[in-house]
Design goal:
With 561 residues, this protein is of the alpha/beta class. 33% of the residues lie in helices and 16% in strands. Among the domains are: 115 residues, no CATH class; 54 residues; 223 residues, Spore Coat Polysaccharide Biosynthesis Protein SpsA, Chain A. Strand 8, helix 11 and strand 9 form a beta-alpha-beta unit. The N and C termini lie far apart (154 Å).
C-alpha cells in the first residue's frame, strides 16, 4: 500500500503544446527529402518552359513571322524536316556539281529585301506545280511535292535553297526568277506584256489533251490574243493528216519539247561502263569486226562486197532469226529483189554460216537470240551501215529497219523520199506522237521494270515495224547510242538516241502496223485472203505467212498508191 501510494504521489509529465507553424516546421525537417525535392523539380521545370517559350517568341519575331502568319509553323516545320532536308540537299548538291563543273560550287544567293529573311521560293507562280507526284531525276526518287516541302524549311539566303531552286525547270509551269523584291515572280509577270508567249514558229511542244501529252509543232503565234497555233495528229484516227488548232497559251498546257520535258524520260541516262574504242578492219582476214552499243562491245560479220555497186539509195535491214529461212526466201523473191536488203540475225554462227556465204546478204551479230536483246540487233544494223559507208565511201540517203513479217514497197518508198520534205524523213514511220507511260505489269510481254527504266514516260517514238532514218540521223545516233543506257524496247531506244540528236518522229499512215480485218498474229492458221491489199500502203506489218508475202507482192501492180 505504501508503494502504491508513493507512485500516486509522483507528478505526471505535461505534454508540449505546439503551434501550427511549429508543427509544419518540424514536419518539413523530418520529411524534407520527400517534400522539398519534388517541389524544387516542379519549379525548375516550370521556369524552363517559360524561358523557352519566351526565346521562341523572340526568334519568330526576328525572322519576320508570327503565330498569325505562320511564323511558328515555319520554325516547327524547319526543325521537323531537318534530317530529310539534309538528305535531299546532299543529293541535289552532288547533281549540281556534276552539271556545272566549270562554275562555282554554289549558286549565287538570292538577295534579301530590307534585311528581312524570307522563305525559300520554289515554284511560287500563280499556277504552282502542275504535278506534285512527278519524280525529279537524279534526286533519289524525290517528287516535286517533297522538294517543295523541303524548300519550305529553308530561307532564301541559304546555299541549299539556291540548289533546290535549280530543279524548278522540271517541276514548275513557269520558272522562278530571282529579284531584290520578296515577291519577285509577281514583278516578273508584271513586266511582261499581256501577249507574252515564249514560243516561236517551228518549236516542238508537248500539248496536254485530256490525260495525254501529245507532240505538236508551233505553226503560228497570235500575240494580240495571247494564243498559239498548233499542228498535231488527231488521236485514234485512220488519217495521217495533221490538225491545226488555235489554243490559248497556258504554261501548264504547253511545255517545251526540250531538256526540261525530256528529263521526265530516260533520254539523257547513260550506261555505267566505259565506252571502248574499236579499230574496225573489213575483209576475210578479220571477218568478225566489232562496235559499241550501250557501253557493250559487240562483234559482227558482214560481207563488205554486198554494200558496193548497189544503185538503190535506201539500205534496208530486216530483223530475222536463223530458223526463219522460208520467210527470208519469200522476201528475196519479192520486194527485196535487186535491192540493198540485209537480214540481221543473231545466235549460233554454225546455224547461219552456209546461208551467209551463199547469199551474202546477212549481217550476223555475235550474241544470243532473244526478244529482250532486239535493241542490240537494230542498233548494230545502223552501226554496220554507218561503218561500211565511211570505209567504202557509199552513197545512200536513208536506211530502213523492219522485220521479216513485213512487206515493204520499196519503189513507193523511193518515190516518197524524192518528193517529200527531207526534214520530214529524218525520223519517219508509224508513231502515236505522244509520251507513253511504260508498262509495269510483269505479266505483259512489254513489261519494263523500275530498275531498268525508272522514268515515268517514254519519249515519242516510231514503232519497230518500220523505222526510216536519214543519213545524217544515222551518223548522229550511231555516236549517241554508244553511251546511252540500254533499254530492251528497241523502238523506244531509237527514239532516245534520236532525241539526243534533236530529231522528233514524223508519223505516216503509209505504214500499217495492224491488219484491218484480222486480229491475229503470224502464227495464226486462219488466213483471210480478202485482207491482202497494198492500197495506199508502203509497209504492211504482220504478214501471216511466206505465201501471203507473195500475195501482197502480187497486189502491188493492181492496188493504187
Amino acid at each position: 500500500r505504501s508503494r502504491r501510494s508513493s507512485l500516486q504521489l509522483q507528478p505526471q509529465p505535461q505534454r508540449e503544446v505546439l503551434t501550427p507553424l511549429q508543427s509544419c516546421v518540424r514536419f518539413l525537417l523530418r520529411w524534407k527529402y520527400f517534400v522539398l525535392i519534388p517541389i524544387a523539380l516542379v519549379y525548375l521545370f516550370t521556369l524552363s518552359v517559360l524561358t523557352n517559350r519566351q526565346n521562341l517568341a523572340i526568334q519568330v519575331e526576328a525572322e519576320g513571322g508570327s503565330e498569325s502568319n505562320g511564323g511558328m509553323l515555319l520554325r516547327s516545320s524547319r526543325l521537323s524536316s531537318q534530317e530529310k532536308l539534309h538528305s535531299i540537299g546532299v543529293t541535289l548538291l552532288i547533281d549540281a556539281q556534276k552539271r556545272q563543273t566549270n562554275e562555282a560550287r554554289f549558286l549565287t544567293k538570292p538577295s534579301v529585301s530590307e534585311g528581312v529573311a524570307t522563305k525559300c521560293a520554289f515554284c511560287e507562280g500563280e499556277r504552282g506545280i502542275p504535278n506534285l507526284h512527278l519524280v525529279v531525276p537524279r534526286t533519289g526518287g524525290n517528287t516535286c511535292g517533297s522538294i517543295k516541302s523541303m524548300a519550305a524549311g529553308e530561307m532564301n539566303e541559304s546555299d541549299l535553297c539556291a540548289i533546290i531552286q535549280k530543279e524548278e525547270n522540271v517541276c514548275c509551269s513557269m520558272p522562278y526568277v530571282k529579284s531584290k523584291a520578296s515577291s519577285s515572280l509577281d514583278i516578273f509577270l508584271n513586266q511582261q506584256s499581256a501577249d507574252y508567249v515564249p514560243f516561236k514558229n517551228g518549236d516542238w511542244v508537248a500539248y496536254q489533251i485530256r490525260s495525254e501529252l501529245r507532240l505538236a509543232q508551233v505553226v503560228g503565234v497570235e500575240r494580240g490574243k495571247n494564243a498559239i497555233i498548233l499542228r498535231y495528229l488527231r488521236p485514234n484516227t485512220g488519217s495521217d493528216r495533221a490538225v491545226e488548232k488555235t489554243v490559248a497559251y497556258r504554261p501548264d498546257l504547253l511545255q517545251n519539247h526540250g531538256e526540261a520535258l525530256l528529263a521526265r524520260t530516260g533520254t539523257f541516262a547513260n550506261c555505267s561502263q566505259t565506252v571502248e574504242n574499236n579499230t574496225v578492219v573489213f575483209g576475210e582476214a578479220n571477218e568478225r569486226s566489232a562496235t559499241v552499243v550501250s557501253c557493250r562491245t559487240i562483234k559482227f560479220a558482214a560481207e563488205a562486197s554486198s554494200f558496193v555497186g548497189k544503185s538503190r539509195s535506201i539500205i534496208v535491214g530486216v530483223l530475222s532469226t536463223s530458223d526463219n529461212f522460208s520467210w527470208r526466201n519469200a522476201i528475196r523473191a519479192t520486194w527485196a529483189a535487186n535491192s540493198t536488203v540485209f537480214f540481221v540475225i543473231a545466235g549460233s554462227w554454225n546455224d547461219i554460216k552456209e546461208e551467209y556465204h551463199e547469199y551474202k546478204d546477212i549481217i550476223w551479230i555475235d550474241m544470243q537470240e532473244s526478244f529482250r536483246l532486239i535493241t542490240y540487233k537494230t542498233s548494230m544494223f545502223f552501226q554496220v551501215v554507218n561503218m561500211m559507208a565511211s570505209e567504202l565511201n557509199l552513197t545512200y540517203s536513208h536506211v530502213l529497219k523492219t522485220d521479216d513479217d513485213s512487206y515493204v514497197a520499196l519503189g513507193r518508198l523511193e518515190q516518197l523520199v524524192k518528193r517529200e520534205d527531207p526534214k520530214h524523213l529524218d525520223y519517219w514511220g508509224h508513231s502515236h506522237s505522244k509520251y507513253v507511260k511504260p508498262i509495269r505489269d510483269p505479266e505483259n510481254r512489254y513489261f519494263e521494270s523500275l530498275d531498268q527504266y525508272p522514268e515515268p514516260y517514254y519519249p515519242p517514238y516510231i514503232t519497230g515495224s518500220a523505222i526510216l532514218l536519214s543519213r545524217q540521223t544515222v551518223e548522229c545516233v550511231t555516236k549517241t547510242m554508244q553511251e546511252a543506257r540500254f533499254l530492251d524496247m528497241e523502238d523506244v531506244f531509237v527514239a532516245i538516241v534520236a532525241a539526243r540528236c534533236g530529231y522528233v518522229p514524223t508519223h505516216s499512215n503509209f505504214v500499217r502496223v495492224y491488219r484491218d480485218s484480222i486480229e491475229a498474229s503470224r502464227w495464226t492458221t486462219e488466213h483471210n485472203k480478202q485482207d491482202v491489199t497494198m492500197k495506199n500502203k508502203i509497209v504492211q506489218h504482220r504478214i501471216l505467212s511466206p505465201e501471203e508475202m507473195v500475195a501482197h507482192h502480187e497486189s502491188i501492180n493492181t492496188d493504187p498508191f
